[in-house]
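writing this on my phone so excuse typos. first protein, seq and then structure
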Amino acid sequence: MSFGGHVLDMVNRMKANDALRKSRRAKNQRIREKLSDSYEHHGYHPFKDKIVEREELERIKTKIRAELKIEQRNNLIRVVFLTILFSIGLYFIGIFLWQRFRELVDIF
């Protein structure tokens, strides 16, 4: 294939990718319209006409914040535990490899 063939192939691939991108946009737009239509036409929305007093709203917010804080703490504990476990594993692998290396050096 000559240089012109490579360029033509590149242009064709760019056109095909552009067509795929446009078709995905159209598909996503249709899905968004259907979802928004279902909320608008059927009158269903999970938070429609929901009135919450200030005290109850503050209580909900503090509860959510507390749950998030607990979740973040648990995630931190998991990360630290896995890091320590990984470090111990690397340590023992390093010791094993060092012993094998020393055995090989002693042979020569």
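second protein below, same order as before
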Amino acid sequence: MIWPHRRSLMIEAAAFSAARGEFGRASAIAGLAVRQWPDELEAHRIIAAVALDTDNRPLAADALRAGLGLAPADPNLRQMQAALDSMTAAAGSAAGQ
């Protein structure tokens, strides 16, 4: 079990790992945080951002769906959703050529 006071530490570690380009580690830490605290919005943001940076559209879609379910008006999540929609449209256009 993870102690509840470790919540902010885990988010900080995930964000730090993402900033260093350690996307696998960032996603793993944020994923653990989401499993422990499903309402942790920042963990959903980190997972979505890392997934977009690594072109993992299914993971990004899942993280964005969960995050927007918690905070539908969140500007960061909405911006990432627009980026995902654009990536998906571009991939669809390229496949249709």
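The chain has a mean pLDDT of 93. thats all i got for now
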